[in-house]
Amino acid sequence: MSQSFEQYRERRRREIDDALERILPIPPVCPGLIAETMRYSVFAGGKRLRPILTLAAAEAVSSEEDPQPPEDLPRGLAMPGACAVELIHTYSLVHDDLPPMDDDTLRRGRPTAHVAFGEGFAILSGDALLTHAFVALSQPRSGGGPDYERRQIRAVARLAEAAGAGGMVGGQVLDLNASGTGAEGANREVDADRVLRDMHERKTGSLIRAAAVVGGILSGGTDDTVDVLDRYAAHLGLAFQIVDDILDVEGTVAALGKTAGKDAAAEKPTYPAIHGLERSRVLARRAVEAAHDALTTMKTKGRLADIADWVGSRSH
Amino acid sequence: MSQSFEQYRERRRREIDDALERILPIPPVCPGLIAETMRYSVFAGGKRLRPILTLAAAEAVSSEEDPQPPEDLPRGLAMPGACAVELIHTYSLVHDDLPPMDDDTLRRGRPTAHVAFGEGFAILSGDALLTHAFVALSQPRSGGGPDYERRQIRAVARLAEAAGAGGMVGGQVLDLNASGTGAEGANREVDADRVLRDMHERKTGSLIRAAAVVGGILSGGTDDTVDVLDRYAAHLGLAFQIVDDILDVEGTVAALGKTAGKDAAAEKPTYPAIHGLERSRVLARRAVEAAHDALTTMKTKGRLADIADWVGSRSH
Questions:
Q1: Which end of chain A is more exposed for a tag (fewer CB within 10 A), N or C?
Q2: Maximum Cα–Cα distance across chain A
Q3: Distance between CA atoms of B306 and B314, rounded to whole angstroms?
Q4: How far lies B235's CA from each of A170, B55, B232, in Å?
């Protein structure tokens, strides 16, 4: 554990990229055009926050159960989950950027998928990325045994629930509905905050929670440990979203790699719009602290505390 | 087994509708608008061919292993798979109908989802239906035990592979690419037939095969039995597609509940376009016979032979 968190993050990011490259389909299994479109969005220089969180959760859980786990074991067990989470995150960006949704043309400094490949192929590549998450998560693991299969099916259930109508897609529905309405016309801060929280807990929070939980499940965490990870990641998700809203106001296109000031232009409800910038910063800091507090009962926090600080301090 | 096939089909259709109603999310789990959009497409009067195939495969496999299985057991084991298959089929129709794809305004006699709810919500409801298939397939079954969990994760793997870039989505990519090109410009019948087959095997065939295979897996079929189901359903899928192409030429909007003559208008490669109507009918008949032949080694065929005849003779 002597390496810095930046070194750790960079190493995991490379491992995740390698794993994604290995599991994405290539011709002749699939047509070349869909393989290309999927890769365009997956390898666009993302931070890999969610899959790093999956691996860090798996590492923390493994050390919890066994103080000296073989170094690669937790990562090997959880990597399919890390890939699945990142594939679902990527699909959601591709579909959210489409003209009938956020109608965005720039993402991570490059043209969005529908600008580069056309709307039809962008929709299909999103569909394929979402579906492939469940391919990744359900592959047999040699020597895995019935216990690992039980973990896999629990991970599928948790990830699908987080991504679906009750989670991420539901949040995007609320977002689409809220644009231009200033939080459904709510004019008091407390109402607006409630609406905003519900939307973000679904749209962003549920997948961040699932990322941590899936890591805990696949590496064999007990129900109690998985619950701790879930609570930690719920605070983490809130911090992430508040910081995201602040960056949309303060950031530049160059730093963000995407259009800045979009939320205000679309009259979307955001933390700075409802609470102001200064109070939003306080709320973000509190959410990071709450994430730390949630870890108190864990014997080994591994990199989870570092990740909370990272989320609270990111500038793009 | 004394009831007619029509009675059997109708009974299973009702049971499947009930099961779908039970598993689809409702508020407050998800926003009301997404629940409504999902239901609009799921309960549109479909034939439920694929989920009936899943249940019939499960029944045939159960009788294979045990001549007197408790009547409801195979259906209970396989129903989550039947629902998952139908949810994926429904999502594919919603997305295929979108303006950047087939741009269709009529489906099963009603406005398509994007006409009724707008493009953004149609895309999101398709995403939610696809995701919910994996929620359905991964729910714990009381008394299921590790053996059922192993079957579930195998079913997830098989269904996700069938639906993704290498299967259904890949087929739609080829379809989107082929429109207006007359099978990528191929001008000889044999080349055109090869291109057409590859597209249909992915776009339609892979999900029909997965429907039968998932039924076999969830009800505990051996690898050999599941292989038999797979071969049977591959022929069934081919028969289905040829008949579909013939109906697009011969059918009326009233009988089909969707726009007729679309394929020719879009210059899509079809069986009648390449082989002519008469020879297409011969090819469909041969595919139905091949489906029957594939069942020869099964001790109990259950309703699988009836389903092959149904697919060969359907008029809408």
A1: N
A2: 58
A3: 12
A4: 39, 18, 6
Q: Contacts by A187-192 with C-beta closer than 8 Å and gap 24+?
A: A189/A274, A189/A275, A192/A269, A192/A274
Question: By CB neighbour count within 10 A (0-12 exposed, 13-18 middle, 19+ buried), where does A289 fall?
Answer: middle
Minimum distance, in Å, between the CA of residue A32 and any CA atom of chain B: 9
Q: Is pTM, for the whole model, over 0.90?
A: yes
Res A180 pLDDT > 70: no
Terminal Cα distance for chain A, rounded: 26
ipTM of the complex: 0.93
| Nearest CA-CA partner of B186 in B307, B310, B269, B97 | B269
Q: What percent of chain B has pLDDT over 90?
A: 74
Mean pLDDT of B289-315: 94
Transcribe B234-255 into DSSP letters. Answer: HHHHHHHHHHHHHHHHH--HHH
| Min distance B208 CA to chain A CA atoms (Å) | 17
Q: How far is C-alpha A129 from the chain's CA centre? A: 14
> What region, left, alpha or beta, does residue B268 occupy, with left being phi > 0 and alpha being psi -120 to 50 degrees?
beta
What is the Cα–Cα distance from B291 to B40, expressed in whole angstroms? 33
**Could you tell me if B23 lies within 8 Å of chain A, comparing CB atoms?**
no
A122-126, B142-146, B305-309: the lowest-pLDDT one: B142-146
Extract the tokens encoding A222: 């007990």
Statement: residue B301 has pLDDT above 50: yes
> Which pLDDT score is estimated for A184?
42
- Whether residue B1 has pLDDT greater than 50: no
Burial (0-12, 13-18, 19+ Cβ within 10 Å), B6: exposed
In chain B, what are the helix, strand and coil shares in percent, each to the nearest 5?
70, 0, 30
Distance, in Å, from the CA atom of B27 to the CA atom of A118, rounded to the nearest integer, reads 34
Phi, psi dihedrals of residue B103, rounded to the nearest 5°: 50, 55
HEC per residue, A49-76: HHHHHHHHHHHHHHHHHCCCCCCCHHHH
Which residues in chain A are closer than 8 Å to B101, comparing Cβ atoms? 120, 123-124
Closest CA to A232 of A297, A152, A284: A297
CA distance B195 to B54: 28
Which residues in chain B touch residue A165, judged by CB atoms under 8 angstroms apart? Answer: 25, 29-31, 34-35, 38, 128, 131-132
**Chain A contact for B222 (CB, 8 A cutoff):** no
- Calculate the alpha carbon distances from A299 to A70, A132, A302, B37, B38 in Å: 18, 35, 9, 46, 44
Count other Cβ atoms within 10 Å, centred on residue B110: 16
Q: Which domains occur in chain B, in start order?
A: 5-313 (1.10.600.10)
Q: Is A38 on the interface with B (CB under 8 A)?
A: yes
The tens digit of pLDDT for each residue in B32-68 reads 999 999 999 999 999 999 999 999 999 999 877 666 6
Ranges of beta strands (E only) in A219-300 are none
Continuous segment of H or E residues that includes residue B269: none
